[in-house]
Write a structure and sequence with these properties.
It is a single chain. The protein is 10% helix and 33% strand. By secondary structure, the chain is mainly beta. A hairpin with a 5-residue loop joins strand 5 and strand 6. About 13% of the residues have low confidence.
């Protein structure tokens, strides 16, 4: 089979080259028909899918001999981490819209994982929801089908005929037109022969995901406002919106219209995004957005409540750049970092310019002692025997008279080398720097730029807000968006020359002003890299492999340099106070820290290494965190807990993790609890245990919403509590978990441990139940809270049991 597919791939390459010579649609279709006829004359089916594989988006496992018989089947070999695989999803959607299952065309995704985390079915299902993949997908977790068919890279598309025979193969992206044209011709070919069957696939339903307020948030950032309070922005990727909120979670703006994908400038209600990721404030009124699937950078003005596009135009493009604003196409920008820094001013002389030099004066000669080497034969030699021009004059005089007598160059200027013979050709004049007017002291200016992690082209780009001479080599006019580091080849190559370096899907950025370095989460190499903003040098920090082309050196190991192992990190954040770099080690479901010093030791900081959703301090569980940022006062770490549809907040001083309670102005906040009317009094001995048993009664004729997060949340008396699981006993109330998934059909049992002595007279505990239910086609959220007044007494029992019936109307 592998040999047959190798022949097919070679033949497909030849076919595409042949089609380039034909502009006639009829002639092209005839060539494709002949090509299909050749591979259908003696068909070699690939065999059926292995029994026991897990399937998604279909009612039952599919078979080429049953449900897929009589169908043109398009096998898309992908892995959900791969940006190149994501790039072809719009092309597959176009095919699905053009050809239905009844037309005889079915797309089947074959998920062949790169990373260990991607083999897990729950993570695959989350990715299918995140990227809106609705066609059937099979989990080829052990890569058996991948190996059987000799697939070598992601993405690969293999087209099968109605009898399961391979008839076309494409490797990589940028084949949209080839795929559409071939499938269209194949439908015509097999329809004419009567081989396509119109039957439907077994029915299935996709369980809805809770849409509110967050759905797969990708990135988070913050800034201090003029009054000292904090402003938070969240890329609400799954709902194609941007949320701006206060530090307490009060939503100020939801930007992005109805939450449907699109590409439109306008006000906050009419503007549209498509899976936005990176966000960066330049001031408390201006926010930049990496509009990832629109391949654009958007500028949000919070005062004017407007959105405008400042780079990109909705079309995925190349890897060089240098065009201005929307005339420059981009490729899946994934993160942003706004940098404002003080740099030495460039020379005050004009930039290098092109000068049309006048022809040499009649009789102009050069003495033999300063003769210039002969130019190429196509350029006429100047007349001989004329005295040479003075060494300090860079251009020949434009007048007819002989040149003036020699002039003495100032001591501070370097001698100018002899010029080639003057001609009317364009000459690039390099002017040496002048001394500064104040006698040699540096003149400094403030420089602003927006750095872009261009995941789609595996590079680092920048949007320049003012005329800039970058690294003393390249001049970029204001508004230019251009590549500043990375060759465009996907690799893990470090280099003193930034454009000779190579990245592998850079996905996270942060800047350290003290060292003037940009840190990069290089996801596909599972490493953290850095760029010196002074020199452009690209260097390794932790993770990855010493071999540039090895993109499979991943794991979950604490250590220094290459000994440390990460798994597809997506975010980085610099913490000034501790001189540490924090990393969202996404596929290890952890936050890791790198303490900068002699060793740059990378250690696990938050998380257990297993996907989950709990807030138990450093033992909290996360699920593929995609972005992190440090608060403006360095006291908090905000975490975009992507697959948990939430923002987690870590307090550096208390080591506590809480979930940011996002709410609209009409919703009350969950304020510090106070006892009062309706609170249930409970008494227990110091150090005793309170056993709570919660039972829920749902309204009649309702049922739980499939796939929606049913949650319980427990709030203890003292916000400074810690947990017995990892801290010694102290004067705080303790519990094993503060929240979790709630099953209303079972009784929830919670155990709360009292402190050995009370530090506060206000001891209020609250249990909240958040459910999502449906009655027919109408769905709604249900919330209920029960409050307890807790007290301790030496004469009270050592344990206290209390049952609660939570009844919803």
């Amino acid at each position: 089979m592998n040999e047959h597919l190798e022949l097919l791939l070679d033949a497909c390459t030849t076919l595409k080259e042949t089609l380039q010579d034909d502009s006639s649609a009829t002639a092209r279709q005839m060539k494709i028909h002949s090509f299909i006829e050749k591979f259908c004359t003696d068909p070699i089916p690939i065999g059926d899918f292995e029994v026991g594989l897990e399937w998604f988006n279909c009612g039952e496992p599919l078979s080429l001999g049953r449900q897929l018989r009589g169908k043109i089947v398009i096998l898309d070999f992908f892995t959900y981490c791969c940006i190149n695989c994501l790039h072809i999803l719009p092309h597959l959607r176009e095919l699905e819209e053009r050809f239905s299952v009844e037309d005889g065309v079915v797309i089947v995704g074959v998920h062949s994982a790169k990373f260990d985390n991607e083999k897990d079915s729950a993570n695959i299902l989350a990715a299918l929801r995140r990227y809106d993949i609705t066609h059937p997908v099979v989990n080829d977790c052990e890569g058996k089908l991948w190996s059987k068919l000799g697939i070598s890279c992601w993405p690969t598309v293999l087209v099968l005929g109605p009898k399961g025979q391979p008839i076309f193969e494409l490797v990589g992206e940028f084949h949209k037109n080839d795929l559409c044209e071939f499938v269209s011709s194949a439908v015509d070919f097999f329809e004419t022969r009567g081989e396509l069957l119109p039957h439907l696939l077994p029915p299935f339903s996709i369980a809805p995901i809770n849409k509110g307020p967050l759905l797969f948030p990708g990135k988070v950032t913050s800034i201090a406002r003029d009054d000292g309070s904090e402003l938070i922005a969240i890329a609400n990727t799954g709902l194609h919106t941007i949320i701006v909120a206060s530090g307490e979670g009060l939503i100020k703006h939801i930007i992005g219209g109805t939450g449907q994908p699109g590409f439109a400038d306008g006000n906050f209600s009419t503007a549209l995004f498509n899976a936005p990721q990176g966000i960066a404030f330049s001031s408390c009124h201006i926010l930049f957005v990496a509009d990832t699937e629109n391949h654009a950078i958007r500028k949000v003005d919070l005062l004017k409540q407007s959105v405008v596009t400042v780079a990109g135009n909705g079309q995925q493009a190349e890897s060089i750049g240098c065009n201005r604003e929307t005339s420059q196409s981009l490729s899946s920008p994934w993160d942003l970092c706004f940098i404002r820094r003080t740099v030495q001013a460039p020379p005050t002389l004009p930039q290098p310019f092109l000068c049309i030099c006048p022809p040499a004066p009649p009789g102009y000669q050069v003495t033999p002692s300063q003769a210039i080497p002969p130019p190429p034969p196509s350029i006429p030699l100047p007349p001989p025997s004329i005295p040479p021009p003075p060494p300090s004059i860079t251009l020949p005089p434009p007048s007819i008279p002989p040149p003036p007598p020699p002039m003495t160059a100032p001591a501070s200027l370097s001698p100018v080398p002899p010029l080639p013979p003057p001609s009317s050709a364009l000459v690039d004049i390099k002017i040496p720097p002048q001394p500064t007017p104040d006698g040699g002291e540096k003149i400094c200016v403030e420089e602003e730029l927006l750095v872009i992690a261009m995941a789609g082209s595996h590079q680092i780009w920048a949007l320049f807000f003012q005329d800039t001479t970058w690294w003393g080599k390249e001049f970029f006019p204001a508004g230019t968006c251009a590549n500043i580091a990375g060759s465009g080849v996907e690799a893990n190559r470090n280099n003193n020359y930034p454009k000779s370096a190579a990245f592998a899907q850079p996905s996270g950025l942060t800047y350290c002003a003290a060292s003037d370095e940009l840190f990069i989460a290089d996801s596909e190499s599972s490493s953290v890299r850095c760029i010196s903003m002074k020199t452009g040098k690209v260097a390794a920090v932790v993770g990855g492999s010493k071999t540039p082309d090895d993109l499979f050196s991943f794991g979950d190991i604490d250590g220094s340099g290459f000994d440390a192992k990460l798994q597809h990190p997506l975010g980085v954040a610099w913490h000034d106070k501790s001189s540490s770099l924090f990393v969202a080690d996404s596929y290890n479901h952890k936050i890791k820290s790198i303490k900068f010093g002699s060793s740059k030791l990378c250690v696990s900081y938050i998380g257990t290494g297993h996907a989950g959703n709990s807030t138990i301090g450093l033992k909290s569980q996360l699920n593929e965190p995609g972005g992190i940022c440090v608060s403006c006062n360095d006291s908090l770490l905000y975490i975009a807990d992507t697959n948990n549809h939430s923002i987690k907040v870590f307090n550096f001083e208390t080591s506590l993790v809480t979930e940011l309670n996002l709410r609209s102005p009409a919703q009350p906040s969950i304020a510090p609890l106070k006892g009062g009317v309706g609170a249930i009094p409970l008494k227990v001995k110091f150090g005793g245990k309170i056993n709570l048993h919660v039972k829920t009664i749902l309204p009649p004729d309702t049922e739980l919403t499939d796939g929606a997060p049913q949650r319980w949340i427990l709030k203890l008396p003292d916000w400074s509590f810690h947990f017995a699981s990892f801290l010694p006993l102290d004067n705080n109330w303790k519990v094993d978990a503060l929240n979790g998934i709630y099953n209303p059909l079972q009784i929830l049992d919670l155990i709360v441990t009292a402190p050995p002595s009370l530090a506060s007279s206000e001891n209020v505990l609250q249990i909240s139940i958040n459910l999502f239910v449906c009655a027919g086609s109408a769905c709604k959220a249900l919330k209920s809270s029960t409050t307890f007044n807790l007290s301790c007494d030496t004469n009270a029992p050592s344990s206290c049991d209390h049952s609660i019936d939570v009844s919803f109307k």
